[in-house]
Write a structure and sequence with these properties.
Layout lengths: L18 E6 L11 E6 L1
Antiparallel strand pairs: 1-2
Length: 42
């Protein structure tokens, strides 16, 4: 999304909200080939 923070150091930490959290790679073609993750926080 526009204005979304991009994390690139490899040591980044984020606090996840409860529920569904989706992350994708912004490199062209990577999301379409599976570079994405879904994390469900209980």
């Amino acid at each position: 999304p526009a204005g979304a923070q991009v994390l690139r150091t490899g040591n980044d930490e984020i606090e996840l909200a409860s529920g569904a959290n989706y992350f994708i790679c912004i490199v062209p073609g990577h999301c379409q080939t599976g570079m994405k993750i879904f994390i469900n926080v209980a």
